[in-house]
Amino acid sequence: MSQLVDTPITGRISPMPPQGAARYWFRVTTFQQERVPVPAQALALGAGVRQYRSPEGGLDGAVPWPMSLRRFVWRACYGALAKRVSTPDWAFMNYGYAPASLDVGAPPLNSSDEPDRLCIQLYLHAIGGFDLANRDVLEVGSGRGGGASFISRYLQPRSMTGMDFSPEAVELCNQHRLVPGLAFVCGDALSMPFAASSFDAVVNIESSHCYESMDTFLSEVFRVLRPGGRFFFADLRSVDGVYNLREQFNACGLTVEKETDITTNVLTALQLDNARKLDLIDAFIPRVFHRPFRVFAGIAGTRNYARLESGKLRYLSAQLAKGSPAQT
Ligand SMILES: C[S@@+](CC[C@H](N)C(=O)[O-])C[C@H]1O[C@@H](n2cnc3c(N)ncnc32)[C@H](O)[C@@H]1O
Predict the structure, then answer these.
(1) How far away, in angstroms, is 143 Cα from ligand 1 center?
(2) Cβ-contact 41, 10 below 8 angstroms
(3) What is the reported pLDDT for 110?
(4) Would you tell me how many other CB atoms lie within 10 Å of the CB of residue 64?
(5) Shortest-distance atom of ligand 1 to CA 78
(6) Can you tell me the distance from the alpha carbon of 9 to that of 12, in angstroms, rounded to the nearest whole number?
(7) Cα(255) to centroid of ligand 1, in Å?
(8) Which helix (H) or strand (E) segment is 160 a member of?
C-alpha cells in the first residue's frame, strides 16, 4: 500500500516506502550514531551555513551537520507528528522513569493520568521534590503538553508556560491542554522569546539532544531565570556526550546542585511501558513508519534501547541553580 507522508528534509509530499530523504528522516529521528550519507537536497538546504559537529549537544557524534539542518529536521518531524496524530490522549514523548522500588514514592495520580505514570515520574524525578508552588515555571520543549499540564494541575505554580519550536505541537496543546494559568508558546530553545529574569524554574525533559548548541541553550536558561531560580534537566547522551555535558554545566554560570545517572531507571520504565507504547504506535502511526518509530520510542530490542542497555547511551538528570546554594 502506498501512503503519502511529509518528508521533513524536503517539505514535499513523497510516495512511500521511504527512500532518499525519507530514509534519512528515519536515521535522524532515531538518534543515528554512525556516519550517514547526507542527501544532496539536504546539503543544498544547509549550503552556506556553518558545519555542526556533535557531540556538543547531541547524540550523533560522527555526523557533520549543517547547523540549520538539524533544527529543520527535528522541527519537521515533531510538527508532522503533532499534525498527523492530533489525539490529546497521547500526551508525553519521553522514555519514563521507574524508581528503584516501584512502590516507593509512587505519587497518587488521577485515574486519567495513570496510563502516563512512568512519563510523569520522569518529570517528578527531575524536579526532585522542589516546591514549585507560586512560582513562574517554564518548560522548554514541551512537546504534546502532558508534562506542563501535569505541573500545572499538581504542583500549583503561579504560572506555567510550555514552549516548543513546533507550531503544530503548540497548537495541539493550546487546543487540548486547558488549565488555568497554563499557556503554550512557540519559541526556540536557543533564542527564547522571554525577557531576562522571567522565571523561577526552567524544566527541560528529553529535548536538549535536538539542539544545535547546548552552550547557547544554557546561556538562555541563565538569562531567563531569576536569581535563585532552578533548572531541572533530564536527557540522553552518548558516553562522550556525558563528558561534554558536564563541562557545559560547569561553564554555564549555573551551579550544579545534583546530577544523577538514571539509565537503569529509564530502562526499567521502558520495559514496563513497552506494551503500551507498542499499542500507541499501532493505533496512531502509519504502518510504514512503525520500525523507525519503535526505535524513537525506545521499544525493547531496538537500537536506542540496546545502546542504553550496553551503556553506549546514558540517561542523565540534573538540577542547577542560578546563584550558589548558599545564596538561594
Ligand atoms: C522527545 S520530545 C519531549 C517532549 C516533552 N518534554 C515530553 O517529555 O513529553 C522533544 C521536544 O523538544 C522539542 N524541541 C526540539 N528542539 C527544540 C528547540 N530548539 N526549541 C524548542 N523545542 C524544541 C520538540 O519539538 C519536541 O516536542
Answers:
(1) 5
(2) yes
(3) 94
(4) 11
(5) 25
(6) 8
(7) 24
(8) strand 159-164
Q: In the numeric block, which cell numbers belong to residue 209? A: 539532544
> Which segments in the chain show pLDDT lower than 50?
1-63, 326-327
- The phi and psi torsions of 97 (rounded to 5 degrees) equal -145, 130
Domains and CATH numbers, the chain: 4-87+277-309 (no CATH), 114-269+311-321 (3.40.50.150)
Rounded to whole angstroms, the Cα distance separating 69 from 158 reads 37
pTM, to two decimals: 0.82
Ligand 1 midpoint to CA 216 (Å) = 16
Taking only the tens place, the pLDDT of each residue in 208-238 is 999 999 999 999 999 999 999 999 999 999 9
**What is residue 66's predicted lDDT score, i.e. its pLDDT?**
61
**145 with 170: CB under 8 angstroms?**
no
Pocket test for ligand 1, best of 28, 56, 92, 165 (most atoms within 8 A of CB): 165
What backbone phi and psi angles, to 5 degrees, belong to 209? -65, -15
HSE, CB side, 13 Å, CA atoms: give it for residue 276.
17
- Rounded to whole angstroms, what are the CA distances from 271 to 123, 196, 262? 18, 41, 14
* 279 CA to centre of ligand 1 in angstroms: 22
Q: Which residues pair with 234 in a beta bridge?
A: 205, 317
